[in-house]
Amino acid sequence: MSFEEKPFLILFAITYVLWWIVRRRERMAVGLLLSASLVFYGYKNWQLLPILMIYCVLDWWVALKIERGTRPRFWMTLGVSFNLAVLCFYKYTPLVVTTARPCLHADFASLLPSDFTDWSIPFGISFYAFTGVAYLVDVYRKVHTAEASLTRYTLSAVFFPHLVAGPILRPHEFLDYVRPGKLATEPLDVSEATWLIARGFFKKLVVANSLGDAIEPFFANVTHVSTAGAWALPYVYLYALQIYFDFSAYTDLARGIGLLFGYRWPENFNLPYLATNIADFWRRWHMTLSRFLRDYLYIPLGGNRHGPIRTQANLMLTMLLGGLWHGASWSFVIWGGLHGTYLILHKIWSSTPIARWLKGTSGILHVVWLLLAGLLTFHAVCLAWCFFRLTVFAESIECVRKCVQFDTAKMWNGTYRDPSVLLALGSYAAILLVAWAGKQRGQSTAFHTGFAWGLRVTTIILVLIMAPPTNKQPFIYFRF
Fold first, then answer.
1. Tell me, what DSSP letter sits at residue 20?
2. Domain range for residue 161?
3. 223-237: pLDDT as tens digits
4. What value does the CA radius of gyration of the chain take, rounded to a whole number of Å?
């Protein structure tokens, strides 16, 4: 089930009304939210529920063994291995088999399946697997205590707003607030919640989907004769915007719904394309994944504690695995490898005298340097997006080639010129400008309150008017 589908809106409305009735009765509230979450995940895919529940039961039980048992390291290793093994089985079996088949003797190769068209990956498995890993490791580190109640732990792991695409939550960000006596009974900041929801729907249904419609014909036919001579760079730019608006829209909706139920979760994006270096980009992009990779992979590998060579190797391995986390394709590994290379080059550059001098400049020179650094960072990220968007290596390379080799007579004739793209981006910019102008009038006045609610209602009305009527594009990160 997806946030923009009518069944979800019905499920949410029913759940929220019932929650207001039972919210002060903890057991009933926990049961209600857990039931709604299972319906949300099992909608059209009830066969996936056993996988989800096995994750929850094993993680809950293993955490208790870590906390109360005599061999905590063994139990932590077992639990983390289970989470990753199931994740790897579903996500990477097709990649491993298709990669290994040409290297095997014909007799062995014939024993392997040859067709994976019916292979399905449980949606959201990457997110709830990482949530489980974080929980087990934090209990092992004694950062958090294990939850005694299976029901409450399961609710923290599968609560429907964050279940399928994050943000990736730590125990102190949600589990601690569903423990006995801690369950929320009132919404948090309804004004902020409704703004996040209105903005999220606009980002997804108007902006991201319009961008997707405009660029899909090119990416679907990047090696076809129909795109011969086409200029790829505008399409790559628009894809960079599409994936940002699409994923940040999901985060906005998840955080907004969480606030309505009384829970505040961390932001996941902070204007990533304004980053002036690649490390800054990863502090702004998919922030909960970045901190997960840092705290549970990069630092345990040794971080920067063992000299520059080891630091560079740790950075590269972290980004390669981060790329592979996104999908079972070697193009994702290349995407991660490019970002690993960027981070290594950034570390080397940052230690040079000229980099330190530029960092300490001021005035016009400093502004010019920041603009150049921002442009370089953005284009480096866009280069990597070619391998993220096109999971067939030959198509990715063709896309990169067409960024620099194209027919000048065709360079301004692409579908990226669709007026709906400019209308969607311009409308979103106008909404943000109006929201900013409203804040300048003060937040405690009656004018501000009326203005804020008027903006939210107007944004939803614009969604209903401007959303492409036949567009049913799922959230991009649902497939991860």
1. H
2. 6-185
3. 999 889 999 999 999
4. 24
